[in-house]
Design a protein that fits this description.
By secondary structure, this protein is mainly alpha-helical. The chain is built from 1 helix and 2 strands. The structure holds zinc ion (ZN).
Length: about 70
Amino acid sequence: MTDQPEKIPQHKHCRNCGKAFTGDGLFCGEDCRGSAGSEAKKKIRKLFLVWLLIVGVTIAAAAVYYMAQ
Ligand SMILES: [Zn+2]
């Protein structure tokens, strides 16, 4: 018995679509890298808007409280 067990090439799963691929990086291709990047940007933008809303409401509440004195 000299047969060696067939080696399974080391592979990763794409962070965006979950497809198995070989090579460097976190994504299977440029398309997934691009769409994942824009998704992350959208998320950051949304978080920033929520933060802005909280700050705005806090300032408005403080202004109302101050004026009511
Ligand atoms: Zn992918």
